[in-house]
Amino acid sequence: MPTYPLKSVDHALQVLAVLQTGAAVTVGDVAQLLGIGRSSAHRVLSALVHRDYAEQGVTREYRAGHRLPANPAGRGPLGRLWRSAAPAVKELAEQLNETVFLQVLRGRDVHFVATVEARQAVRVGDRTGLVLPAHMVSGGRAMLATMSDEDVIALYSGSRLGADPRSLRHTLDDVRRKGFGTNVTETRSGFVALGVAVGGTEDHAHSAVSLGVPEFRYVPGRLPEYLTALRRAASEIGAVIAKPPRTARISGDDGRSPSRPTQGRRGE
């Protein structure tokens, strides 16, 4: 069995596992984690950036790209987001006895960070880890509506996702006017969703909480009740995540955080 290609794949997978926690890493961090030179670590990160599994910020640190599904169990910003949001999300699901989702916006996609399912036999199921186009889902529309028209146009410039600019602008204007996003059987038959934006921090630019209800059980007359509960939950989550986060650290396979290297190996 060849070892070189497998080692390259293994290196990429280890870095993906770290990025999925929401941690930010440097070339030096990756070199230390993998036990390779800085030039080799840079090549691994560059390949992930090229495929949109990683992105580099202005601080030269690398974070998860929009194609990498979120992992709420991680120790980084997404892990903190879920731990901060969990009480409000669980309370919302308990109060309405319907399924509740926590979502984040990455690029043009919405990542489902966590799900708390309803207790009822017929319910909307767990969607944790799912990635869907933001303009098609309630939480995504709510998050996009917090952006300026110019930023939305720039985000969708050159997109092949079928998001017609005029239609999208009309949809987002409606969301801004109402204060919430909707998805009525657009991504799943028999499924109605309502989404409210939470707000942003430096770690995760936008997040949202949404409610999923089977279409046959959705009663328009309960909309004020749904929205009051959603907005209260979003407000509670926003207040918690607005607190300054601790610096994320990365860990090796044994769970220990490697020390930052003083310099990389030469000649690699």
TrEMBL record:
Domain HTH iclR-type, first and last residues per copy: 6-66
InterPro entries the record matches: GAF-like_dom_sf, HTH_MetabolicPath_Reg, Tscrpt_reg_IclR_C, Tscrpt_reg_IclR_N, WH-like_DNA-bd_sf, WH_DNA-bd_sf
SUPFAM superfamilies: GAF domain-like, Winged helix' DNA-binding domain
GO molecular function, one term: DNA binding
Keywords: DNA-binding, Transcription, Transcription regulation
Domain IclR-ED positions: 69-243
GO biological process, one term: negative regulation of DNA-templated transcription
Disordered, as annotated region: 243-268
Source organism superkingdom: Bacteria
KW Transcription regulation (keyword) present: yes
Name recorded for this polypeptide: DNA-binding IclR family transcriptional regulator
